[in-house]
Structure formats: structure tokens, C-alpha cells
Amino acid sequence: MNPQLLFCHFPFGKDCEAIREYVATHQYDGVEWGLDSWRVMVARGRRQQMLDRLRRAASLCSLHAPYTDLEIGHRDAEYADAAVRVLQGYIDAAADMGAHHLNLHVGSFAPEPEELSWETLVRNLATLMNYAARRRTAVTVENLRHGPTSDPDTLAALLRHTGAPVTFDLGHAHGSAWVQGGRGSVADFLKSIPTPILAGHLYFTERDDSHFAPTAVDDIAAALDGLWEAGCDFWVLELHTRETLEQTRRIVDQYLEGWGGSPSKKP
User: So what's the pLDDT on residue 37?
Assistant: First the structure.
């Protein structure tokens, strides 16, 4: 059985009709909506209109929570508490839409150690997970290219303390200092995750905030094997342009087709 394939809406901006047509034409299962630059409205009526637009574009979806101005692990408790309250609203949106999950960044943009509180991060992540469970949806934590979740040991400690499931980002792992410094591979990073991996972000690597497509199946095959071994069948192609999205889709399709009898594990 093949994984569910989704793509991030970024190449299409906010054109929900174009996204709906692309889902159908290219045989995707759904869309991940990145909400950092497209915030959910507070006014009830307009909020419902927005969620209805997204729902019409794709029946299956995941949501990526805003992160540039939200940090649940901030040392300033008042700021961290405010971030929790805002993110609870995004959990509500995920629940109302029947989204697969809401994905979070923590420690975005590699804040200095004195800007973060480990205890606050653990407490607030647990609070959001409990809130999501009451709303019958899920919250995932994503590994980032910089900051605390870019290191497998630090990320694993956070996950063990909270039990949080993960969205594993292949490109962030590949671009991290841990992988680039030769301490291990993307597949090794993935194997260090101690909690369920609910989703994968698929592309080759991130440099200067840009996502680069794989050029060959070998670029990501071992990582895709790892996702399968971890039981992750929700794959989001997270690219910023149609060209890189379609290149990544070609590589993923080759992987799923077995690419010429390769020993790589297939569904």
C-alpha cells in the first residue's frame, strides 16, 4: 500500500481553486497548509469561511502552525503563555477541519540558550498535546535545521519527556550541523526518534531557507526506507516552487515504483 502523498500549498500561494485542481490532476491525496503567512482569522464568521475554502480545496489536510512570532519555550513566561493560547486556537482549527495533525516548530531560528527555558518548553508542549487530545486531534514537533531540535539527542530528550509525536523533515535533517558535520546520516537521525513519526516532510536539503529537490532516488531513498520502517505513511512534499515540487514528485514516484529492481524497501 502506497503512502498518502500531500504537498505544501506554497507554490500556489492562496489560490485555493488552483490547489484543488492540482490535487486532482496530479493525483495527490491532500494538502498541508502553512499558516505562518496565512493566519486563521479570529472573527468567527470569517474564520469559518476561510476553513471552508481550505476544506473544499482538499478533503485530507494537515496544518503547519505559525512560528516566526510564537515560541512556547520562551524564558519570558508571559510571552510563552501567550504563544500557547494562540496555538490552542490553531488546534481548534485543526479539529474543526478534521486535519490529520497540527505541526509545530519549537526553538525556531536558533534562539540563544538564555532565550529559552527547557522546563517551560516541556510544560507548554505537554499542555498543547493534552489540549489537542481533548479536541481529538494531534500535535507534532518538527526537527529543524538549527536550534535545539536540530540535534538528535536534544530532540529525543524533549520527545521522551513529553511523548510528542514527530513530523520528520528530511531536508532539515540533511542541512543540520549534525549531518553536515559527519556525525551521522539523515537515516541515522530518523532512527533516533523515540516517539511515533506521524508525518514526513520530503525534499532533499535546506540551504538559506530554500528547499532543494532531490536529483536522484539515492538522495532520499534511505530516509524514505526509514519512514516506512517507522510506520510513517503521511508524506508531505514541502517545496516552494512548482518546478521543485514536480521534480521531487518524480523522484518519490520512482522510489515507490521500485526504480529498476533496487533493494530499497518498498510498500
Answer: 85
Distances in whole angstroms, Cα of residue 150 to Cα of each of 67, 110, 168, 172, 243: 16, 9, 11, 8, 27
Could you report how far apart the first and last alpha carbons of the chain are, in Å? 6
Over range 208-216, report the average pLDDT. Answer: 95
Q: In one letter, which amino acid is 138?
A: A
Within 13 A of 107's CA, how many CA atoms are on the CB side? 25
- Mean pLDDT of all residues in 159-173: 98
Section 70-99 average pLDDT: 97
Domain edges within the chain? 4-257
Cα dihedral 63, 59, 193, 77 in deg (nearest 10): 20
pLDDT averaged over the chain?
Answer: 95
In the prediction, which pLDDT does 209 show? 87
The CATH number assigned to the domain with range 4-257 reads 3.20.20.150
User: Which amino acid belongs to residue 18?
Assistant: A
Half-sphere exposure (CA, 13 Å, Cβ side) for 125?
A: 28
Residue 262 binned pLDDT confidence (cut-offs 50, 70, 90)? very low
Radius of gyration of the chain (CA): 18
Q: What is the pLDDT of residue 266?
A: 53
Answer yes or no: is pLDDT of 261 > 60. no
Q: How many CB atoms lie within 10 A of CB 86?
A: 17
